């Protein structure tokens, strides 16, 4: 897992591929419903005024996630 | 903020869905992700005016309407927008239960052409339940503008059901849609089953139980779907399935042993329940991606560039929050400046009518008490409600609706999320708070978009800290009378807007503070996770918005106020004219309340006006005026200036004005809101708390402010 980043580490404009989710239960389902399955490309697009939450482009939709939720999504950076 | 009779009036219980169908009426479920224009499609087909808004979670109730095609009746049911049928929230449960067990003849899935991939997820899930589906690809004109090209035939082939392209806002494609609905509902069109194929290990497990499930449920429900759900069962679904079937399916011994066998098979491949869910969802998501890639061509890869530019302006560190405040201030300014003149005109006209009425009563030599009850009591209160309340509402509502339709509200939630997080509250509470500006009862209903019960309660209990449309005009009138005169004329309305903005900001701060307080005491807990969708910006249909918000919302709210105002006027008149021990009842009550009210910087009449205004906040100022006029001497009441004179004659000072504004911002919610809280929470305890919380806090703050001002000798 050391090679993986968590989603919250992405800078605005950077993209990454989802590797795994560490959340469980309802929260995990909610993330899956967003289409965050292994291999999904996610791009960090927009910072909120305080830097948390951050909006990500996920499968054609802009979704804002709080820092602690993004931390539970492991990704590998793609460019 | 579906502020129509459906959501606030007598029919708050619109969620207990009852469908009355006669003969061969067809029931059509209208499903779809949130914010794809489902309500627009609904309105266009039924001619009804379900309010639409460009933000997720707007339709929180099931609305239904009918339309006719070739002499057949179609009952259209608008179910809450959801991303999936996996039922992660109460709304999704409602949607799932209706599609799965409500036995609609056809389910129309409305999708957004500009983000089809995400939408296909739900389409595929629904196709597992039923094949009587028509897929409506809406917002085609927007997709076109963004260079998104969709091969509809290919999509239809992939899904096995009819696909219709529409732009519901401009009514394009609706005829084709109703034709397809007709065809599917009357089995004139064959849909075919494109089986969603999962991982082999899951398919094997399904095969184990499928034959037995088929035997048990026969044609009642799709056996394959039920088999998958049996493998991946959650409790809410178990209840729903059993009540639909009328028996406990797992009591079948053969089935439960087969189910054990299937689960054992999965476990032997290291597939736990959690893995299974992951694999099922992944299967659907990958299939959606595959279909999307085969049907959609992006001619302009940068199709979101414009939205991002706007977003960077509206949500950046430097400009995000200032622009938010400016925008809100601008709306208030327009409301204040725009309301002034029509308000004066209206009150002149209405009081001219009052004089004529008086003449008429005199002419017919009617007894003075009759004239008192009807003219001085009922008519005058009514006239006040209309002239003070109507203009600001008629301006504020359309402006706010424009903001709502453009897609800006979710950005407000995005900007403010950090504050809500600090208050241990849900990020979507910003949305329900915004709904509260229109009507607190609607805000409370809107809290359903928050799926964690703890955070939903927090949002419910604090909704009243933003002033609703019924309280705005009161606050505006007081500000105009007492504070804007401090600056020179051309700047007055600007100054008023600024003060109003500070009052709102105070309300928002109180919301956050009280949320935090609740999180630390009664409703301990940490914020749950959430994902907030920021939808594409849309150009609101200005003409439509103005007309609809005036006719549907403003007149409805006004109607409610008026229906309360007339009896309240009657009560006030009676109270001020029935004397006991040479003092009117009104004076008795006011005198009784007075000592306590004085502590809060108010007086007996003001406090009584708030109490009598419990049915509808709009009538607080009119009652106050009536109270003063009955006990004091008559003045010509045609504008705010003379009203100001009246108030000052009755001992109003700046302190009184400040405290009245504060108390107006923070006191018990109106009766409708209380009833709604009771309905939503199902608990007397929480309703009581929602009543007491703002009241006690408001009284405390008024007391402190009044005492401080007194000590500082500022009158």
Q: From the 3D coordinates, which CATH architecture of chain A would you assign? A: Roll
User: How confident overall, as mean pLDDT of chain B?
Assistant: 82
- Pick out the low-confidence regions of chain B: 1-16
Shape verdict of chain A: globular
Largest sheet of chain A: 6 strands, antiparallel
Which percent bin holds the helix content of chain A? 10-25%
**Derived structural class of chain B:** alpha/beta
Characterize the main sheet of chain B. Answer: 6 strands, mixed
Share in helix of chain B: 55-70%
- Strand elements of chain A, count: 6
Gyration radius from CA atoms of chain B, angstroms? 29 Å
- How many angstroms does the end-to-end distance of chain B come to? 40 Å
Indicate how many domains the architecture of chain B comprises. 3
N→C terminal distance of chain A? 19 Å
Q: Under the CATH scheme, which class of chain A?
A: Mainly Beta
Query: What is the radius of gyration of chain A?
Result: 11 Å
Task: Say which CATH homologous superfamily of chain A is assigned.
Answer: Ferrous iron transport protein A (FeoA)
Chain pair sharing the greatest interface: A-B, 37 and 45 residues
Strand content of chain A: 35-45%
Total helical elements of chain A: 2
